[in-house]
User: Fold these one by one.
Assistant:
Number 1:
Amino acid sequence: MSIDKITLTGLKVFGYHGVLKKERKKGQEFIVDVSVSYKMNKVVDTDNIKYAVNYSQIAMIVKEVIEGEPKNLIEKVADDIANKIIEKFDVKIVRVTLHKPNAPLDVIFDDVSVSVERMK
């Protein structure tokens, strides 16, 4: 049995998530990496898109969640993305890393991120 993976890296979506009032009012760009693991045997054998996990739809789920109802914590946002993907597609594992490169910190930094993994 094989488990294969599709990965989307660096999806950039503007949203209003955060604990601080200024984050909710001004908003900021979030960057999301998603990977889904599933058995691609039927996809490979048939070369038919109807058996594939549609990565365009995965990107749209990410966009809808980030642009949707504001959440306090990026952990909740990442969890929402992972759960919506695993509900929609016949995948075994979903990994989501949500980056918040403009997080309100008082030190110089490159990135803040949270990663979640959900299994079916």
Number 2:
Amino acid sequence: MILFIECLIAITLFSLIVVPMTAKDPIGVISDYPPAIRKRCVELGMTKETTNRFEAKDLVRKGAAIIVLIAVAALVMVKINHAQTFLQGFGYTYIIWMAITWFDALVLDCGWFCHSKRVRIPGTEDMEEYHDFLFHIKQSCIGSLLGLPACAVVGLVVMLMA
């Protein structure tokens, strides 16, 4: 039951960060949009073309978020979940990671992003890519894999703290 509540809290916090940021400034999170929409934004002069999907500021923002996640997750695993082993720390954290990842994919991306006009960038409203559910599912599969190292670090921290 505690793990379920932790998943709900994590999903809520994630949503409170992502939804307002995306609704306020879609160009600010353009790196998370499908490639064709990013390309159209370059053509319209709204953003510059990059060889990498993520710019340095995106990597810093996401890297900082992962570091905070690791620190908070390790504390929660030890103090609240009473995790004592690598597998407990890793497993519990990965369950929470997956809850966030798939909530993001199914509810925020496939539900909200694919249907809301609030996230449409002017000049791209006509694009079918806003309804590309497969793009969001693929990104979540990648996100699921990216969670493995972060959760492994939490497992190591839990093991060392126990």
Number 3:
Amino acid sequence: MLIQVFITVGISQALVLALLLCLKKGRKTADLILAMELTVMFIISILYNYRNEIREVVAVLPLHAYVLGYLGALLFYLYVKAVVQGELQWRWKRDSLHLLPFGIAMLLLSIYYYPLSRVEQLAQYDMVSSSQAPLWFELIYYGLFLGVFPYYLYQTYLLLQKHEHYILTKFSYKEDIGLEWLNRFFWIELITWGAFMIFEVLGQHWLVLLGDWGLQLGFIFMMLGIMYLGVYGLREHPVFVQQQEEPAITANPAAGLAEEKANDYLDQLLSYMLREKPFLAPKISIAELSHRTGIPVNHLSKIINEQLGLNFFDFINSYRVEEFKRLVSEAKHEHFTLLGLAFEAGFNSKSTFNAIFKKFTQQTPSEYIRNLQTLPIAGSSLS
């Protein structure tokens, strides 16, 4: 009972967050999908954790926790897709196939469970609870934990990787457009599925080690995930506030780039970088740099990737690192902190500065300063 209460209190945050999302000014499709996902997670948790109490009132309801799991996995994937794409473009002929597993699970319930009398439903439920489930329920059970969950987790992972690649090739910054928080939430979802697999499928359904509370451990991980989403989302991430969209980049169709022309473009680019220092603009994108240099965006991307062996993000930030090192070496900047100098060099994030600086120098900024012995250690708060 104590675990039930603990999970209920934690999972109730899902309804509060869902309400905030629905009331959000200027809400988008992604907000509504996330609200539905949180609501489904709450209903699943209640149906399972209070299954014995619910079955005494409505015997048909508790098994819907497993069926709704099909929607929960799908909604998380659709939410990530909507965030990555800006808006979700649902095409019924193609995308309605996503609803097929849920439809099959509901059909199995409709055929083999709904028509039964209350006494027969209770008997079937007891069989399920004693790990002697009928075949139709085994199909729902394993279809969820071994089919739908891992499939949509994998598809979500691919979406996040694609978005990360897009940012690294188009932008010089990640703030406001990066999805690091969603990457972390994805890992929480992955751990939750792993907990269900270990504590429920393996520990209870196969080896029968954990008794009736095996699946509750999985719900504890789910609850912690919702708590993370609530605290992080409300405090930091613009899921719950209006987001400023980046203008879309429209590139001309890629055309062949002769080696001589590529070398000319490269010389033109490198000369411009040293002369005009466009990297000092904290939010410069490849589209803007293309406009400034007059180099077509597709060719600009090609020479950065192929001739310099860098993506756009690393290309711009490598110049910022060198600018920071130049600023550090000048005595007139001795009163600056490391973060102040990083901002002067074009960075607009402490975490990005630290990560990029160490990537290119194999040192933290503070270690670099100590080696130079030019700035006071008091300014080394970024290490």
Number 4:
Amino acid sequence: MKRLICGLLALVMVLSLAACGKSPAPDTTPDDTPAPDAAPEYFVVGDGVYRNEKELDEKSIDRAIGKFQKFTADYCGEAERVFLALIPSKNGYLNGSNGHLNEAEFAILQSVYDKWESNFIDLSVCLDLEDYYRTDPHWRQERLGAVLRELGAALEFETDTVLDGDHVLSENWTEEVLTTEYIGVYGDEVDGVPAEEMTVLRHPDMNGYIVRNGETGEEMPLYDTEKLTGRDPYELFVGGPLSLVTIENPNAGNDRHLVVVRDSFGSALLPLLAQSYAKVTAVDIRYMMPNLVGNFVDFTDTDVLFLYSSTVLNNSITLK
């Protein structure tokens, strides 16, 4: 059964596109020089940096959903559960109503929901603006407890979360601040934006994780702190932009296997999901042709989660 919070539907009538803080793609002169009044690609609100994103592209959404449906038909016939979870852009929480999405972002969510013919998870109800980095488009791992619990309810896995409480994650999870000088890829594009903390979550089960680069078969760290000094420190999460990653958890207490077909947002969530599964396999079809996935992944008795940001689905040319 599709799972969409119906209260969001009322937003369509009360929000305006002007409130979104977004502008259409800038016009260009014949020599491709941006027009003088073109909107900047990046803009600052408070101490947060945002990127101007295009409005709903129905053809792009059609293309993405078509690829997911073909992937499902090709591989998921023997899967236990198949879900699509949508991650809103942080722009979507600018000028929204009562903590909900603004109209432009809601239009993307509604389009995806209408086109996807299977189980759907709306993660917008688990998130707000503070759950994203100020200087980067991605979400903060230490703020994903509510997301983990929502996914657990849908996919029927047990999570180490508090049933009732503000913190969501149980006391078994601890936070480690890796740096207080983090500047994300958006922050690199503007001057004078203050740095922020980058924090990772630890759990006792992580001590037994076996993490492998599926491209090479080699073991790698769950959090590669050497990436902190690289071009994009967010890539420290589970190897960053790899086409195939596996995490085995001998302490899971089950033999369940989760396949996550994902974009870069998935990297920060994979360590949390692995706490509940004997094995998690992450596939990124921005870097691997879908028709090759079956050569590397056995989908028998798996759970399958398509986990994508609205930004990627609305620019699905990045999917192979």
